[in-house]
Structures are given as structure tokens and as C-alpha cells.
Amino acid sequence: MGDVKGFFKNLNFTIGFVLCLVVILSAAVSMVWTPYDGNKMNAKARLQGPSWQHPLGTDQYGRDILSRVMKGSVNSIIVGLITVAIGISVGVVIGLSAACCGKLIDELLMRLCDLLFGFPAVLTAILITSVFRPSIVNAMIAIGIFYIPVFARLTRASTLSVLAREFIIAARAAGAGQLAIICRHVLPNIISPLIIQGTIQFAVAILAEAGLSYLGLGTQPPNPSWGRMLNDAQTFLSISPWMAIFPGLAIAWAVLGFNLLGDGLRDTLDPKMAKGG
After folding, report:
1. Distance in angstroms (rounded) separating the CA atoms of residues 26 and 17
2. Residues of the chain with pLDDT under 50
3. What angle do CA 115, 116, 118 make, to 5 degrees?
């Protein structure tokens, strides 16, 4: 992939890396320590503003907002990892099959992707939760299903581009089979765009989960979620604006970080985007 220092020469990558590192460190620390128990209620401390005792204030139940924001970062990272994993694992198989198995299979799989595109994550989550109950698992399934056509189309386009190159013709002339070509030549050459897309979709997954939790379709109480915290804060905006400000800033911070990281990876890994490339 090249020298690691080359990545940090890109401003977007550097800023995105720092922002994402803060989110990841916050999640890692919260797994072993938080200032308070994020789910512990304290009626005497309810709706307190930011202070030395509670740096981000408390909510309507007296729970420490900093502790809940930290715990919410774990939830967001898990959602991002699992949904992107679902999209990549299924999407890559569909994309490779579409590119390598003939025009009929290609047409059928791409029409399937068009069908999946017609069901946004929110609509898919509503459909799933109408049959099952609202939960973070169902929210992740909904977002992951929405990602499948994204990665399938990217994989198909990248694979067709690689298969048209001269070294593929040489490999076939040397007697290499289709599976060997995919494993030895196609996958190594499409991994970069998949990493870039996965990083960008990670940010979208965080935003989507926050939206679903805000609607009551994602993480269920009392488990901390940035979107759920925004939902709880809307009733108290006039008297306790910090209840909405800090979870909102956490969402913006994480989404901006992963978007900038994805842009930086694209500029560095994609020769067409690299300056002077």
C-alpha cells in the first residue's frame, strides 16, 4: 500500500485519522472506565448543567451525559463495523458473480441490487421491526442490507475494469482458471476502492443508526445511543440544551472524521485522484 508517511501528507487523512482516533479511544476507555455508571439514575442531580462534577451535565434522570456519550461511541463503532461487514461480504460475492458469470447472471443480480436500492435503511428497518421488535440488531441488519448493492456495484465495476487489462489476458493464455484469476489478480486490485468505500459507509452507518435510534427503531433504552439521547433531549431543549448539543456534536465529530478519513484514503490510494498521479 505504500509508505505510511505518504498517508499523513494528506490533510484530509490526517484530520480524519485524529478525529476517528478520539472516537475509538473514547470507546476503548469506556469499556473499562467511565466517570459514572451511564445508566444509574440520580434524581437529585437531574438536569444539571456542565460542571467539574459532570463536565457535560446530566439528563432528566440525573445520568451523567459524558459517560453516556462515551458508551454511545462503542455502540456506533459496533454498528459501523457490522453493517459494513455485511455489505462487503455479500456485496463482493454478488459483484464478482455479476462480472464473471455471464450477461444473464449479471442482469439478474443488478436488477436485484436495483430492488434493494428501492428500500432505504429506514424503510427496511420499519419493515423488519413490524415483524420483529425494534432493536439494535434489526437496525444493523437493515443498514447492512442497504449497503449490499453499494458494494456489489462497486465490486462489479472494479472487477470489469481489472478483467479488461493485459495481464489478465496473459494469465488466461498461461492457463489460469477463473477462480485463480479472481483470487490472484482481481481481489488484490479491487481491495483499495473497497477500503475507501467501507470507510465512507462507516460514517453513513453511524448517522443511519443515530437516525433509527432517534425514531425508536434502533438501540433501545436504557442502553446509551447518540440518536436516542437526542430523542430524549427534545423535550428539554429550552431548559437543558446541553442534552442535545453534546450527543449531536459526537455524531458530527464521528461522521466528519470517517468521511475525511475516506477522502484521504481515496486521494492517496486511487492514482486517478492523487495529485500529480
Report:
1. 14
2. 1-2, 274-277
3. 70
pLDDT recorded at residue 276? 41
Whether residue 37 contacts residue 62, with contact meaning beta carbons closer than 8 Å, is answered with no
The CA-based dihedral angle spanning residues 249, 252, 254, 255, taken in that order and rounded to the nearest 10 degrees: 170
pTM of this structure: 0.91
Angle separating helix axes 242-269 and 226-233, nearest 10 degrees: 150
Helix axes 103-117, 65-100, angle to 10 degrees: 150
Q: Is the dihedral of CA 21, 23, 28, 34 positive or negative?
A: positive
Start-to-end CA distance of the chain, whole Å, equals 15
Which domains, from first to last, does the chain contain?
Answer: 4-269 (1.10.3720.10)
**β-bridge partners, 64:** 58
pLDDT at 267: 86
d(CA 171, CA 256): 42
Would you state the cell numbers that stand for residue 239, as one nine-digit string?
431548559
